[in-house]
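G., the chain you wanted modeled:
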Amino acid sequence: MTPYDFDLFVIGAGSGGVRAARMAAGLGVRVAVAENRYLGGTCVNVGCVPKKLLVYAAHFQEDFKAAKGFGWSVGNPQFAWSSLLANKNKEITRLQGIYHNLLVNAGVTVIDGQASLADAHTVRVGDQHYRCKRILVATGGWPSIPDFPGNEHVVSSNDMFALEQLPERILIVGGGYIAVEFAGIMHGLGVDTTVCYRGDKLLRGFDEDLRTFVAEEMHKKGIHILFNTQIKAVEKTAGGFVALTEQGRRLEAGLVLYATGRTANTAGLGLEALGVELGESGAIKVNAGYQTNIPSIYALGDVTDRFNLTPVATAEAVAWVNGIYAGQFTPVDYDHIPTAVFSQPNVGTVGLTETEARNRYADIDVYKSVFTPMKHTLSGLDEKTLMKMIVRRSTDRVLGIHMVGADAGEIIQGMAVAIRAGATKTVFDSTIGIHPTAAEEFVTMRKPLP
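Predicted structure as tokens:
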């Protein structure tokens, strides 16, 4: 008789946890998964999915404006936040049900409640204790709001998906992808939007040309951006809130959103008491096989705070299950991870930035194109597209591709396949473009920048 209740106990039913649980169960492993909030984790409930739905909603304002140039008269469009919220909630509920059915149908035991580690092989949920051969922590991340006077008055990105009503004016603090995306959403839905960032450029870590270009396009659309500005306090007023900056400015708003980063969601898991090694930010430290310093405990996804993207968490789950239960560990390729920012216009990127490429190699060619998309020759909207390609001259290999423009995420997905396959500039040049599309620009770039 086995001494364990389960072969594998997964803590967290987000993208990584669900994928690992389902795959392992499919291989005959006795699996349980515990979740104390909502099935599907951040992505399904307060991240990728609802955010993309809001992005779609926000873009209609520009579509209505553009329609006139194409002969359409759409009258005076009206927007109802309550209707969008209700429809969004209905879709999220549907997805939660799908996740539940996927787990149950795979033979996974789903446990509702906060799990914590009693010892290296025991998980506690409420009054119940479960003995487990292996434990996988996949609890994701959580919005981080710094400590400052008045921080109780601000909201996080999680709260944005359940607002009772939209404010007339919003102040978004932060310069990363969450701040940029919500700036586009709020502005598109008719909210007077200001972004306040302590740095001098948005989207730290992205290509420098892209960072500058995104800010310029956001500014043209009417989004206010305050660089090199630090908030020291937020005060509640009769009409809303006032944010006080280190520079002495008073920024009034009906809502203050802090999008200043996320931290690993490890609080309350009992990791420190058990001796699991954590980083300074609380993230779980793991080796190449996603194993902690305690052999029976593993972690993957955002809780390890390495590459905090949903597809990375699911890829790590696949690699881990295959390695542990199928004997064929194939490591995740972290060098060619494509990503998108669903700003307006969109951002898509894969591979090295120009700075990274020049730091690594001495022989770099850069190809860049800025143009007016075909749609906007009639739309009347002043929106440009940026496309950029980084090539190593000695090998002709394409090292990075970056784009700002409509459907950038959709386009860069295909480019990521090419880069991972080792495509050269010659391969791109010899590929026939699809005309007329923006994407064909990537196969017609002939002259590098001087």
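Residues 177 and 341 are 6 Å apart (CA to CA).

Shout if anything looks off.
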